Amino acid sequence: MPPANPRPNKWPKTLTSDHLHRLVRAERDPRRALELFDAATAAAASAPDPIAPSPATVSLLTSRLASAGHLPLATSLLSRSRGLFPSAAELEAPFLTLLRAFSRTHRPLAALHLFRSAPSDLALPHSARSYTAVLAALVAHSQLHLARSLLADMRAAGFAPTAATYNVLLKAHCSDAATPIEDAVRIFRKIPKPDACSYNTIIDGLCRRGRLDEALELFSEMVGKRIAPTVVTYTTVIRWLAREGCFDDALKTFDEMGRRGISPNLVTYSSLIDGLCKGGRSTSALELLDRMIKEKLLPNTIVYSSVIDGLCKEHRLSEAMEVLDRMCLQGRKPDAGLFGKLIVGLCDAGRAVEAANYLDEMVLAGIEPNRLTWSLHSRINNTVLTALCTKGELGRAFQVYQSTRSRSISTEPTTFHLLVESFSKKNKLERAAHVVLDMLSERCIPERETWDVIISGYWGKKKVRQEAEEIWNQITVDLIT
Q1: Which stretches within 314-391 are classed as H helix?
Q2: Which first-to-last residue range defines the signal peptide (predicted)?
Q3: Contacts of 231 (CB under 8 A, 6+ apart)
């Protein structure tokens, strides 16, 4: 198959920097884009009126190479680009791009090394922006001791922290659980002109430390200073109000958000719905679920799981089943955890057969146990088996048991015993013996009570008892003679 964007055989007679930028952007493979860039710059260098690629092109290509994991190529490109621009300052944009790319690819120490070597390797002096970019990388990856050292270097170099620098420091103090939140508040108060990002960070930090009242005061202060709250601000406040059980305040804040023309996102809805469901306010959660769909913001599995869990806890199982059906109609695939909530709820309500039917539906949907969900699947199946035995639905219980065994899902010893006891009492001794053999194959040694149940069941059969008595009598005669 030919490549999607083949390299042109001939470059245009007048190759412009804009044209080169479009060609590089159109090539999806970053390595091929680099080859194209090198070929184009070589062709341009031999032209009568040579052109240099723009810093934006170098930034784009540097970022794409780094994001694809080609970090040495990205660094080499930046180094080679030093001679393409009249001033080293024009390298700062792609340089910052590469620093941020190192951070995105979880290489904060590489970003720090590149920053340290910039004056010698790239003839690019440090700036407040580059200091801030490296600080952000270190903070994002919890390298807080290095971030503090770099901040000291920044001040020693004569660079006053900018608003962006303060925001990075604020995030560092708020994300470090060992750092007193008062330190973060002091940094916040030092910011000459805090912006929405500053407020968002300190509000979230206070909420995480259980200081919701202080966070709400800062939220009011933010509004009073005419700093427009963002969707992040509102989502943070709503989430923590809901977590603290302040549901009416959370709903009022949600409505205020809409009046200000800020559209809630999926995280906003998810946070509020989850809090409402955990607080026994599933009716309000259902209203929000309908509102989401009307606004064409499709709920994800997490949202549906919260609603179904809340409805099950309030014993509104029919509505929970309707929500599950709605979820499937919208193309969302329930996972084992979501099915489990509904199945356990049905079992608790004594609706064991319906629970078993949902267990079958779960199997038909191809939701099989893996390393992470094995214990969950085992718990769900054992719960259904226990409920079916308790309700006397032994035929259905044996079907579920066989399905469980065919999928290698382990059965708990108490469930084994209950199955043996239930089958023996109903004179289904072959099935009881089958379960005992399965127990032994799993090296699950039956308790004495389990043996007593099945032996008593067999002994209760008249034919078995007669045969045993005849054998015993024959043994006695043989011993006497």
Answers
A1: 317-329, 336-348, 352-364, 374-390
A2: none
A3: 257, 262, 263, 264, 265, 268
Where do the H-state alpha helices sit in 244-333? 247-259, 266-278, 282-294, 301-313, 317-329
CB-CB contact of 202 with 170 (8 Å): yes
pLDDT band for 51, please (50, 70, 90 cuts).
low
Kindly report, residue by residue over 55-86, the tens digit of the pLDDT.
Answer: 888 888 888 888 888 888 888 888 887 777 77
Distances (CA, A) of 312 to 96, 202, 239, 316, 330: 51, 37, 22, 6, 21
Q: What is the mean pLDDT of the chain?
A: 85
The structure tokens 């690819």 sit at 105
The pLDDT of residue 315 is above 80: yes
Q: Dihedral through CA 122, CA 123, CA 125, CA 129, nearest 10?
A: -30
- 312 burial class (0-12, 13-18, 19+ CB within 10 angstroms)? buried
User: How many residues belong to the chain?
Assistant: 481
Residue 235 is which amino acid?
T
pLDDT tens digits along 16-32: 778 888 888 888 898 99
For the segment 433-460, the average pLDDT, to the nearest whole number, is: 75
Q: Which two tokens stand for residue 481?
A: 């003679």
